[in-house]
Write a structure and sequence with these properties.
Elements lengths: L1 H8 L13 H15 L25 E4 L4 E4 L5 H19 L7 H15 L12 H24 L1 E3 L3 H7 L2 H6 L4 H24 L4 H11 L6 E4 L4 E4 L6 E3 H19 L24
Antiparallel strand pairs: 1-2, 3-6, 4-5
Helix pairs in contact: 3-4, 6-8, 8-9
């Protein structure tokens, strides 16, 4: 109540933030924050209460960004040695948990690894500028897409982009089709094969090229180089990885899985409700002028 009163009077700038985690894990998170900032955790277990806290109990940071759901704390670097020691301590806990073998808790390992990542991770600020608000929104979306793609690439790696990998996967459908003994299943395999070829065909069409020609050239090149593809930006053929045209593996996998899931839902539905497209009225001609 004292902090709220000071905040309302404008005498002290404070912000109350809900502590992360639950139970013992909450205490561990608070201890991590205290080590990062050089402060102390105020709790009865260590014999420290709020009325006994002094200015030395508080920590300091380079910046704190408080949002509705996430709070980002950036240390000032003065506690680097303490943070390194804390990371080693958590890594030992991870090793002890993994030593349990099959009895190891995957959830506990995930949370410990998460604590290590939060302490060891860095924070980068990307500033986006533009002349108009429309251009700014477009650039911001591109930066967000690039950030999400980078995170996905870190998780599962990268593959050749520009529709090259999807085209390469479409050739594997022939082997799968031969193992199917149901005509309808083979028809489904043909649908997926056509869908996998479509991204490269669409890229070529958007670039003013003939999709069938580009696909044929890429198919011939992939006989010698599996990452052979067509770079629409430079209108050149070659190894897509060498040219820097890449896709996160997670994105390619998710695209196929989600696409098949949606198509399967439509095929097994008795009825689908959709919005009827509006028909544009024909332009009304100029009425006669009377002379």
């Amino acid at each position: 109540s004292t902090l709220v009163l000071n905040k309302l009077r404008g005498g002290l700038k404070v912000c109350a933030i809900k502590a992360p985690g639950f139970g013992d894990r909450k205490s561990s998170y608070l201890e991590d924050i205290a080590i990062l900032t050089g402060g102390q955790v105020i709790k009865d277990e260590v014999g420290l209460t709020l009325d006994k806290a002094t200015i030395d109990t508080l920590g300091k940071t380079a910046s704190i960004d408080v949002a509705k759901e996430v709070t980002t704390i950036v240390g000032d670097g003065s506690t680097r040695d303490e943070v390194s020691a804390r990371i080693k301590q958590i890594e030992k806990l991870v090793a002890d948990e993994r030593a349990k073998g099959s009895a190891a808790s995957s959830y506990e390992l995930e949370k410990l690894s998460e604590r290590i990542a939060r302490l060891a991770g860095g924070v980068a600020v990307v500033e986006v500028g533009a002349t108009t608000e429309t251009e700014l929104k477009e650039k911001k979306l591109k930066v967000e897409d690039a950030l999400c793609a980078t995170k996905s690439a870190v998780e599962e790696g990268i593959v050749a982009g520009g529709g090259t990998t999807l085209l390469k996967l479409s050739k594997k459908i022939d082997e799968i089709r031969d193992t199917l003994d149901n005509t309808e299943q083979k028809m489904g395999a043909d649908i997926i094969q056509r869908a996998l070829k479509w991204p490269l065909r669409l890229i070529a069409s958007n670039a003013g090229e003939t999709g069938d020609v580009v696909i044929n050239n890429v198919n011939q090149g992939q006989m010698e180089d599996p990452d052979y593809g067509w770079n629409a930006g430079t209108d050149t053929y070659g190894n897509m990885l060498d040219m820097g045209v890449i896709d996160p593996t997670k994105v390619i996998r998710s695209v196929i899985e989600n696409g098949v899931s949606v198509a399967k839902t439509f095929l097994t539905s008795d009825a689908v409700v959709a919005e009827k497209p509006e028909e544009n009225d024909e332009a009304v001609g100029m009425p006669p002028m009377g002379y």
